[in-house]
Every structure is written in C-alpha cells, then in structure tokens.
Amino acid sequence: MSSLYTRSKEFTRSRKSQSDSPPASPSPIAKTLRHERLSRLESEGSSHTTTDTYSDRASAKARREARIASLTSRVEEDCQRDYRKLYESALTENQKLKTKLQEAQRELADVKSKLEKVAQQKQEKTSDRSTMLEVEKRERRALERKMSEMEEEMKVLTELKSDNQRLKDENGALIRVISKLSK
C-alpha cells in the first residue's frame, strides 16, 4: 500500500503545470529594459512618482470601497424586500385566519343559541311529546355534531394561529440578524 501511495505522490508531482512552477529568471534583455525604465523614473523625480502611486492607490481603494458599498446596499435592499414580502404575506394570512376564526365563533354562538332555544322549546311544549322528543333528539344530535365539528375547527384555527405567530417571531429574529449583519 505504501508503494502505491508514493507512486501517486510522484505522479502528481510530475503532472504539475508550468503555472505551479516558479517563474524563470528574466533574460538579460529584460533586465536591461527594466533598469532603463527605473533610471528614467528616478530621473523624473522620485517624490512625483510616489505621490502619483499613493494617489492611484487611494483612488483605486476608494473605487473599490464604493463598489463594495453599492453591492452590499443592493444585497441589503433585496433581503429587506424579501423579508418585507414574507412579513406582508404573513400579515395577510393572519388577517384571513382571524376572520375565519371570528366567523367560526359567530357560527358557534348561533349553534349554541339554537341549542338553547331547542332546550327551551322542549320545556314549553308538553303536547305531542313523543314525536317532538324524536325530532328534538335528532336536531340536538345534529347540532351537537355540528358543534363538535366547529370545536375541532377552532382547535385547528388556534394551531394555525400559533404557527403564524411562530413564523412572525422567526421573521422578526431574521430581520434583527440581518440588521446586525448589515451594520
């Protein structure tokens, strides 16, 4: 096994590209050209060239910082738009759920009032009691079934409401994290 490992290491070493190898030493012509260029620059005045290089570096740095700032502002705007959309959709869904909950509560109150009316009618009416009892029992069973179904719906709506609140809290936490990261 170790012999395979050493062979593979040698194989990778032999396959190195020229870009991985160190640059070749410059030719004598390139050295003389570089020397002439440096001597010309020195003859023009070293303070002028250093000032130019410093100003070039400063302007390049300023351009780079401006590009980075514009990119980060774009990213922040995109993130804020996305979170704003998520927040707005959560709000609209929450409003819809609230209206459904209110409608279910109204229906439940109506069913309860009907059930109470049926109970009152049962006490008031004594004539033809046997037939009325059957009808009332059916109505009562139907109303109780409907009431149990509505209670189940209420449970589902409360679960949805808690999920919606959890999503709102997570959204707020994400917004806080993004605002901290953007600072």
From TrEMBL:
Superkingdom, natural source:
Eukaryota
- Key words, A-Z: ANK repeat, Repeat
Ranges annotated as biased composition (Basic and acidic residues)? 33-45, 54-67, 118-128
**MF terms in GO:** enzyme inhibitor activity; phosphatase regulator activity; protein kinase binding
Region Disordered: which residues?
Answer: 1-74, 118-137
Hydrolase found in the keyword field:
no
Spell out the GO cellular component terms annotated for this protein, sorted alphabetically and separated by semicolons: A band; Z disc
Q: Where is the cGMP-dependent protein kinase interacting domain?
A: 82-183
What is the name listed in the Swiss-Prot or TrEMBL entry for this protein? Answer: Protein phosphatase 1 regulatory subunit 12B
Give the species: Vombatus ursinus
